[in-house]
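Private note to self, pasted from the team thread so I don't lose it. Backbone tokens:
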């Protein structure tokens, strides 16, 4: 059952300009937002909050066609960033390839799923820009994630990364942080991952080699151009604080990870 909370209609998620909509369906709330990126292009972000699962998902399509999905699992302190990159058929690639990058997050980096579900916006046609740029965070991935066993990290990995069974990555550093959470076990977490091939623990960057069939270290950057990163509080007449809005941020993530052949990393040239 769908309950429409606004008088205007949401358009397709791939249109360049859309209205900001607030929908409620099957326990999910959804925001559709116009965002201007650093290159001046206007993209549409879809942000979905599921309070029951305590999950927030953000998705958008970049101007180069790459579909980026970010899922925040607040219960497990897990971020999953998924990239669906269109292939270059004239260079022998398939139609697309999918990679997932799984990392630990601190809950304070984002507003909660409950707070996200309560967001309302005036002026839905506005093209939005973030208030703060949180820069670029570098991640050197050193483990493969076995998606069939990934439920010990987050139950959402197996569904989101079903097309990235051989290209889902995490880090030893993230396992350590998850193992320190109540009820967690490092041995169980280790059962869901595997190291990169021993002979290729430190392959050269893909940009440094010419052979398309040799292993190398690929780099992929994904930037979230606009997301609610914290709540704003104001003081009332009695000096009592109350929520009075949100602060919005921009953040980039640069991932370095192993690929078995340069052909799987043609953008890193």
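Design output:
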């Amino acid at each position: 059952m769908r309950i429409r909370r606004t008088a205007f209609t949401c358009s397709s998620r791939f249109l360049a300009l859309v209205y900001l909509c607030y929908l409620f369906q099957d326990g999910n709330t959804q925001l559709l937002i116009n965002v201007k990126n650093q290159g001046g292009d206007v993209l549409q972000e879809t942000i979905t909050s599921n309070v029951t699962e305590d999950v927030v998902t953000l998705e958008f399509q970049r101007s180069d066609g790459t579909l980026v999905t970010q899922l925040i699992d607040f219960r497990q302190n897990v971020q999953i960033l998924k990239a669906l990159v269109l292939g270059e058929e004239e260079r022998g690639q398939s139609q697309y390839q999918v990679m997932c990058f799984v990392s630990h997050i601190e809950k304070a980096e984002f507003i909660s799923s409950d707070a996200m579900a309560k967001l309302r916006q005036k002026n839905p046609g506005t093209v939005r820009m973030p208030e703060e740029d949180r820069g670029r965070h570098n991640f050197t991935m050193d483990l493969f994630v076995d998606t069939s066993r990934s439920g010990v990290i987050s139950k959402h990995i197996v569904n989101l990364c079903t097309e990235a069974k051989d290209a889902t990555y995490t880090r030893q550093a993230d396992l350590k942080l998850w193992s320190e959470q109540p009820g967690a076990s490092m041995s169980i977490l280790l059962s869901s991952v595997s190291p990169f091939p021993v002979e290729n623990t430190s392959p050269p960057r893909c940009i440094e080699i010419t052979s398309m069939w040799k292993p190398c270290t690929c780099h992929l950057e994904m930037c979230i151009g606009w997301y609610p990163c914290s709540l704003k509080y104001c003081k009332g007449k009695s000096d009592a604080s109350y929520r009075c809005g949100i602060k919005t941020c921009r953040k980039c993530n640069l991932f370095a990870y192993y690929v078995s052949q340069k052909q799987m990393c043609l953008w890193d040239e």
